[in-house]
Amino acid sequence: MPRKTFRRLHHPEDPYPVLFGRGLLEQAGALAKGLWGGRRIAVVTHRKLAQLYGKTLCARLKAAGADTRLFHIPEGEGSKNLETVRHLYGRLVQYHFGREDGLIALGGGVVGDTAGFVAATYLRGIGLIQIPTSLLAQIDSAIGAKVGVNLPQGKNLIGAFHRPAAVWIDPNVLTTLPPRELRSGLFEMLKYGFIRSPALFRQMERSPDVFRPKTPVLEKAIALAVRAKLAVVREDERETGSRRILNFGHTIGHGLEAAGAYHNLSHGEAVGWGMIAAVWLARRNELIGTKLAERMEKAVRSVAPLPSLERLGTRPIMRAIDRDKKIGTKGFRFVLPAAVGRVTVVEGFPREEILWAVKSLISASTDT
Ligand SMILES: NC(=O)c1ccc[n+]([C@@H]2O[C@H](COP(=O)([O-])OP(=O)(O)OC[C@H]3O[C@@H](n4cnc5c(N)ncnc54)[C@H](O)[C@@H]3O)[C@@H](O)[C@H]2O)c1
Q: What does pTM read for this prediction?
């Protein structure tokens, strides 16, 4: 058995282990055996990721004695839907998977959310291990037990809370991640610096090395971001209160993304603009001073250049933001930065303020 080379990122109070280390995938067989004994395992992934990592993972699982099946789902947000879920249920039934068997989600947030939802609902719930392969999934979507799929009417409208049995994070896999996906994850990573981790914020603003895979500084930043997410979820797993701070940068970010029909901007870029808007609004409402606002904006811009919003138009963005407003809530709930590593949630935030920020973003983005 290979020597253990992983660290534990979870806190003793966390309900599942989060292990982190280079080459962790190589140890998956032994780890799964320790966790699940002789259970049968369904590995769900994309075809491309199966070639890169899935086949080796299955070989390790089989070598450790697990009867293993590999199932593919198509790439992209478009496959995060009930049709894919139904297809996976069919495969599990076909191979007689029972309640005692388990599922491994090997991929980015699309695989994690979709396969996770299948694990949450097949036979009223089977075991799930998350092996996130995108930066966003490693620091965000694989942690926190939220799983789900989209409806034609909107994103993430169907879902469940389903705690994984474990999350295994191997930063080696990031070397094959397309650069745009890496950048997307970096914007989300900076979000954790803003909302919870001054150390992460400082590291990201000071060290450009953090933006390249294979660097120890990126590893350190991943560990800080994971710990920040675990801490937020620990306090409010079911999102009835403080977990809402995770929406930092997302109210306007989602509006930009939807108005661009999900083509013009990546999710990370939209969140990047959304975080800048939140910084400007915090400054305008005197929550932070000019110097800090400038420092925060600089940190966002240092992640990657942000694309122009000129072609999106204020109206479609505002329409998307209005649509996105959580059903049943009065006014807007908006997350503003209050200090490095701390945000505040404002209820009933005025729509005119958001409109001001959107207009300002559009004109600033055309100047850059
Ligand atoms: N459950 C949650 O709490 C939560 C939180 C945030 C986001 N999400 C969801 O996550 C999804 C976005 O996740 P994402 O950004 O990972 O997108 P994704 O899963 O679509 O992955 C992005 C692309 O990168 C590829 N990829 C992933 N890992 C790779 C690797 N190591 N090498 C080569 N290619 C690789 C994928 O095949 C895909 O083409 C959205 O659906 C979003 O709603 C969920």
A: 0.95
